[in-house]
């Protein structure tokens, strides 16, 4: 067994396509690593207990609460955060749909909502409005933009290759 | 979070060896429960043994026509596995009734079996709790106990087991395969989780130096009828006040087998096989389901705030059995209860 001391451990992650290395204590969550070490502050800390979904990122393509992940346990993984999704000039179809459907007010939950919705679409299970609502229930929105959020996701599922409207 | 030593187990034997001599060690799989408990200082392991490299991620058919599911299979992968969807739809439905998509993507079979109660006193280290600190007392018994047990509770603990998956596994009848320093053994799910008695700090009969390898499901009955009905304070992403897993086979309107397990009502998934026998050979009628539900709940006891759960459980059992009998299982996305 590889014994690692209670000090800094090396972790290598591919984040938004770029290999990143860090030396961290084992208690550091993926969320804190992204925000504090890598300055990727698009991923938000809400409850820090897996109850709100603001910290949702994609790990090897699957949506996961980064606040409940010890970063060292995911050594070698591919991580996608909101910084790796779309650009200001070329929005991801979900980002574009969120804008058009008023799917946010304060925007704090939005990075998690977008990452979660990307995960939802790649899972390919939720199709109907009820199914989208259920599959997005891990992402809370305190502004209550849920109707717009579901509208946006429903539209992108119905027309995944729809051109971005600028 | 308290500091701890982090190890990555390269083999099952290495994990068991470390568990055997390090009483402060805990195994880490998905981490959705353990990391949360560590943030609250409810769990303070001195060593974390990460088992994610161990070869426990397979789903395989067994020689008797059942299924062996590895400890590290995630809740999502299990719920969406074609064999589970087709032959064990009750299990798929129960898993999808629990937590959120993100949590199910990380949480594992073994972690779900070992998840701890969500009793608010257990989570609050500023209060006494016999489960967290043996002998310190149980504020829930005369405190905030609306969500707590109505069956099998003790003076020392009135907590409930929070899992949905385990309720379906109880109804299906599942073996838990574990390994310790002296080899492997199997524990039936009914004997895996325990009632609190005067040792509520022990959730299960798993020994400190044992690791869960996986679970074994019996062959799925042909022509099974099922429903998993979960009642909670909001429609999604909440723990059950009461849930019922019903599994029936019916020939010519007459019940040939009936398996029913309850969640949210006790320190373990609650099943009473003696009561189930009463349903066998009788018509699948509402009256018979009522009679069964009354038997199942005959020993229920209310705390100061949770008396409503007894009647809620009765109605949930009857409705789940009706849904199963009529082949209209509860949808986990359309929340209307038919």
Q: How does this model look, in words?
A:
The complex is a heterodimer of chains A (166) and B (338). Chain A has helices at residues 30-37, 93-100, 110-123, 129-135, 146-158, and strands spanning 2-4, 9-15, 18-24, 56-59, 62-65, 78-80. By secondary structure, chain A is of the alpha+beta class. In chain A, strands 3-2-6-4-5 form a 5-stranded mixed sheet, sandwiched between helices. In chain A, strand 2 and strand 3 form a beta hairpin. The termini of chain A are far apart. The model of chain A has no long low-confidence stretch (mean pLDDT 94). Chain B has 338 residues and is of the alpha+beta class. In chain B, strands 4-5-8-6-7 form a 5-stranded antiparallel sheet. A 4-stranded antiparallel sheet of chain B has the order 9-10-11-12, with helices on both faces. In chain B, strands 1-3-2 form a 3-stranded parallel sheet, with helices on one face. The radius of gyration of chain B is 20 Å and the shape is globular. Chain B starts with a strand and ends in a 13-residue tail after the last helix. The mean pLDDT of chain B is 97. The interface between A and B is large, with 41 and 41 residues.
Morphology call of chain B: globular
Helix content of chain B: 25-40%
Q: Report the sheet-strand fraction of chain A.
A: 15-25%
Question: What's the CATH superfamily of the domain at 225-325 in chain B, by name?
Answer: CO dehydrogenase flavoprotein, C-terminal domain
Assembly of the depicted chains: heterodimer
Order of helices and strands of chain B: EHEHEEEHHHHHHHEEHEEEEEHHH
State the CATH topology of the domain at 225-325 in chain B: Enolase-like, domain 1
Count the helices of chain B. How many?
A: 13
Which bin fits the share of residues in helices of chain A?
25-40%
Give the total of domains of chain A.
2
Order of strands across the widest beta sheet of chain A?
3-2-6-4-5
Which regions of chain A have little confidence, pLDDT < 50, spanning 5+ residues?
A: none
Q: Name the chain pair with the biggest interface and residue counts per chain.
A: A-B, 41 and 41 residues
Determine the mean pLDDT of chain A: 94
Q: Outline the biggest β-sheet of chain A.
A: 5 strands, mixed
Shape of chain A: elongated
SSE topology string of chain A = EEEHEEEHHHH
Protein name (chain A): (2Fe-2S)-binding protein
Organism (chain A): Phyllobacterium sophorae
GO molecular function, one term (chain A): oxidoreductase activity, acting on the aldehyde or oxo group of donors
Keywords (chain A): 2Fe-2S, Iron, Iron-sulfur, Metal-binding, Oxidoreductase
